[in-house]
Amino acid sequence: MSLSELQRLETAHVIGTYVRLPVEIVRGEGPWVWDDRGTRYLDLLCGISVTNLGHCHPAVVAAVRAQAGRLMHVSNLFYTEPAMRLAERLSSSSLGGKVFFCNSGAEANEAALKLARRAKPGGEIVSVTGGFHGRTFGALSATAQEGKQAPFAPLVPGFRAVAPTAEAITAAVGERTAAVLLEPIQGEGGVHVTPPEALAAAREACDRHGAALIFDEVQTGMGRTGALWAYRESGVVPDAMTVAKALGGGLPIGALITGERLEDTLRPGDHGSTFAGGPVVAAAALAAIEVTDDPALMERVRDLGERLRAGLREIPGVAAVRGRGLMIGFDLEHGDAPGLVLRALAEQHLIVNATGPATIRLLPPLTIDDAIVDDALGRIARLVAC
Asked: What pLDDT does 335 receive?
């Protein structure tokens, strides 16, 4: 089927919530994808930090094939080994509490908000400006971006957004605060690292007032920043965290992970999901964690991130470079990031993403090598020079 026929079908039958790039992707392997004409593209976006191990990683593919041939779905009315093993692995690798499975990052954040309100009924949720937590109503209410919120007002009451500074967070948290929800690094907001002093202030304020500190690690988690979970690098341990995107190695899964204090807050019937933690996606996630949770790989991610950021700073026309590990954003001196995304696809066969008028986001596979980094830098330099 031709691209024009796919576009016709979309126009006729798909609700228009996406602005798609004019390419049909038919195959992927490692850092590469191919379109229907056989053109190869270097993917520096990973499906927005989903295919962190590259496309169709052999360990994930093998796990999916094996599990799909045994059992695909039974619902959470029964036990399955992959789900229980995955919960154990997530807990032991992070906060040591318990896990609620869901299907996406937004759903994980919804579960976290219910957890906070269950622990402190009626309490206020404090989030920070520039953050992004999803498009469902609770997650959207915590996403302080006017353009995303305004069309769907009124939103869920009891949410308050403040600047991501120690002073603002300290002033906002009080006895009626149920939780502070924030990202260690704001991804959709343009790859802005939350200041360490702001994270520390949030921890101190939550401890003082009995509120829950919740880290949204939907994008930063699963090795993206050079540690399995970004909170490990901050020196601040949250009460709960949300993960998704790369957790399933390319399949849809999300999770809320608690520390011990909140592990029994939600009770039978408080929350649920028909497909959550299904055996196939749980098997995929177990395989993905097994590959990702490797000190040697995490060291490579940190080294490659430094190499990529240093190279970007040398490109004329690049105004600022931010990020950690292989979660990187850079600004263009002359703007038009959306235009660069289109030119990157057409002229350099490169997949990148714009998070604003002048900001490009890079989320390359964690498994790339020095040669791929240098290749990417060359393609970006040719684009920025035009």
From this structure: 85
When the candidates are 3.40.640.10, 3.90.1010.20, 3.40.50.12780, 3.10.450.50, the CATH number that belongs to 71-292 is: 3.40.640.10
- The reported pTM is 0.96
Exactly one of 159, 215, 245, 330 is catalytic; name it.
Answer: 245
Would strands 32-35 and 25-29 be described as parallel, antiparallel, or unpaired?
A: antiparallel
Q: What is the DSSP letter of 249?
A: B
Choose the catalytic residue: 43, 216, 239, 331.
216
Torsion sign, CA atoms 295, 297, 298, 303:
positive
Spatial contact of 194 and 183, defined as CB atoms under 8 Å apart: yes
Q: Is 245 a catalytic residue?
A: yes
Helix (H), strand (E) at residue 108: helix 105-119
Exactly one of 43, 98, 100, 132 is catalytic; which is it? 132
Q: Is 120 a catalytic residue?
A: no
132 annotated active-site? yes
Residue 1 has pLDDT above 90, yes or no: no
